[in-house]
Design brief:
Elements: H1 11-25, H2 29-45, H3 47-58, H4 62-87, E1 90-91, E2 101-109, E3 113-116, H5 122-136, E4 140-143, H6 149-162, E5 168-170, H7 175-182, E6 188-192, H8 195-208, E7 211-215, E8 221-224, H9 230-242, E9 254-258, H10 262-277, H11 296-311, E10 315-318, E11 322-323, E12 328-329, E13 332-335, E14 352-358, H12 361-369, E15 376-380, H13 384-392, E16 398-401, E17 423-424, H14 429-435, E18 437-445, H15 461-472, H16 479-495
Parallel strand pairs: 3-4, 3-6, 4-5, 6-7, 8-9, 8-15, 9-14, 13-14, 15-16
Antiparallel strand pairs: 1-2, 2-18, 7-17, 10-13, 11-12
Helix pairs in contact: 2-4, 2-5, 2-6, 3-4, 3-6, 4-5, 5-14, 9-10
The protein binds nicotinamide-adenine-dinucleotide (NAD).
Nicotinamide-adenine-dinucleotide binds near residues 215 and 423.
């Protein structure tokens, strides 16, 4: 057998997932809800193991992991509350052309769903996607990140307690596992991670015309306008940048601060970092709330960005301590940064923030527009006019005014996702369910309206005249009138027994 004809090592499993997909497509909302509740129960019962894994991988505090579990719980409960209504046919407004007909949308399962996931919040990232696939009635194949091996093992155990392998499978391993899985004709692929692999995923999906949801990152700007409350901005941004040691896709990456307040803001930011993470003066490295960088490769990457910036003239305003053996980088503030520094070109994904002062507002906008559209952007301002001005001139997957990070995990009605380089598609609540579903348009021809044969050849003069009249002017029939006519057609149709 030639190399090109080699059988994929996951082909037999794939065939089993495929067979299961037809069965799952016919399950009711009640059956899917029962599975979700059972899964949530096992997740919460596994809390201790999840805490141990998060501590071993990132030295996360129990409270930080509990906050992720709360998000997972909220997500599952939200889906259970709404799933029956999402699965019901969604009536669609009729039109003049569909008089006498019923139009609606059915969300039907796309089929096999693959999720190639990442390591910075591995439990939440697995389940926010997985819950959506279960809700939509799709078999789900999760490939957790090899950089979070303890969490991957816990995920394997949890899923094994609730699902058979043909319904929800956890595939442990690294890129070699994703590479083989990506050769198979999955119907939808989710990916969370960096750009290089994002491109690999898109190319692989193109082979089978799989639909794709990409959740990637970028350089998220935070604008601090001259009308901002500097102390409040410093406190919130200190938390947003240092949480998870900066390894958060939505974390503010650089701060565009109005000249007039740049000094005060920098001072307040440093003050808040100290109050939150070194209040006892024993050093940031001793704080139970400062996590570690995930591995030596990422540590070297972030340290490399810092060293490059300092060598090219950046000013160390705060922090700058590193300990390679402990994978520790202290909360750090840099000023005097420039475009030729790598730290202003790449996503930092670590606890370092760059201060970029601006004079005229257009300067801040130019800096943002020089980069691809980010996942999140933030505006701190008290002046409404300034807030609206900046909103109108920027684009990102999400935006928060006078805070940061709170657009994720707080409100399952909000869509989560990026735009172009920062991603495509949306996650959370109904959005994940829709990503896993085929939005199928349905029209049912029910009651005759006018002459039902008028549209067939040979075309009558009456029909030609009707089309000509419709082409000649704007058709302004209110929806309420269409609904009323439809109601009459339905009643007369019923009376006539049609
Ligand atoms: P990564 O890209 O290295 O890995 C992610 C996944 O891709 C892993 O499961 C890995 O096994 C797989 N993978 C790696 N190489 C592969 C290959 N050659 N072929 C197929 N699969 C491969 O993850 P990372 O870049 O370290 O993750 C950090 C990035 O993720 C940051 O840019 C961050 O902003 C982003 N992120 C985004 C979100 C979001 O929701 N938008 C959330 C978390 C992280």
């Amino acid at each position: 057998m030639g190399a090109a004809e080699q059988i994929n090592p996951y082909q037999a499993q794939f065939d089993a997932w495929k067979a299961k997909s037809h069965e799952l497509a016919l399950t009711s909302a009640a059956q899917r809800i029962e599975k979700l509740r059972k899964l949530l129960k096992v997740i919460l019962e596994s809390r201790e193991k999840i805490l141990e894994a998060g501590h071993a991988e990132l030295r996360l505090s129990p409270t930080d992991i509990d906050a992720q579990l709360l998000m997972v719980k909220g997500e599952a409960e939200f889906i259970c509350k709404h799933l029956a209504s999402w699965m019901a046919p969604q009536p669609i407004q009729g039109s003049l052309m569909t008089l006498g007909k019923a139009s609606y949308v059915r969300y039907e399962p796309k089929g096999l769903v693959l999720h190639v996931s990442t390591w910075n919040a591995p439990i939440a990232e697995a389940f926010v996607v997985g819950f959506g696939a279960i809700a939509a009635g799709c078999p789900f194949v999760l490939k957790p990140s090899e950089l979070a091996p303890h969490s991957a093992q816990v995920l394997h155990e949890i899923i094994g307690k609730v699902f058979a392998e043909d319904e929800f499978a956890v595939m442990i391993g690294g890129p070699e596992v994703s590479s083989d899985l990506l050769k198979l004709p999955f119907n939808h692929i989710f990916y969370i991670g960096g750009h290089a692999v994002g491109r690999i995923i898109l190319r692989a999906a193109a082979e089978h015309f799989a639909t794709v949801t990409l959740e990637m990152g970028g350089k998220n700007p935070v604008i601090v306008d001259q009308s901002a409350d500097v102390e409040e901005a410093g406190r919130k941004i200190a938390w947003g940048r240092v949480a998870n040691a900066g390894q958060v896709c939505l974390a503010p990456d650089y701060a565009l601060v109005h000249d007039s307040i740049a000094k005060d803001f920098t001072r307040e930011l440093g003050k808040s970092m100290t109050l939150m993470y070194n209040a006892d003066g024993k050093g940031f490295q001793q704080s139970a709330d400062v996590p570690r960088i995930v591995n030596r490769r990422h540590f070297d990457r972030i340290k490399g960005l810092l060293d490059d910036a300092l060598a090219k003239g950046a000013k160390l305003e705060f922090g700058g301590e590193t300990d390679a053996d402990d994978l520790f980088i202290s909360p750090t503030i840099l000023s005097n940064v420039s475009e030729d520094m790598r730290i202003m070109q790449e996503e930092i994904f670590g606890p370092i923030i760059c201060i970029v002062p601006f004079g005229a507002r257009d300067q801040a906008i130019d800096t943002i527009r020089r980069r691809p559209k980010p996942l999140g952007s933030y505006i701190f301002a008290k002046n409404r006019e300034a807030i609206d001005w900046f909103i109108a001139r920027t684009s990102s997957g999400s935006l928060v005014v006078n805070h940061n990070l709170i657009q994720s995990g707080t409100n399952p009605y909000l869509p989560f996702g990026g735009v172009n380089h920062s991603g495509q598609g949306r996650l959370g609540g109904k959005y994940t369910f829709i990503e896993c579903s085929n939005t199928r348009a349905v029209v049912e021809d029910q009651y005759p309206a006018g002459d039902p044969n008028i549209m067939f050849p040979p075309y009558s003069d009456k029909y030609k005249d009707m089309i000509a009249k419709m082409l000649a002017k704007e058709i302004k029939v209110p929806d309420a009138m269409i609904n009323a006519i439809n109601g009459i057609i339905k009643i007369t149709g019923k009376i006539k027994g049609k």
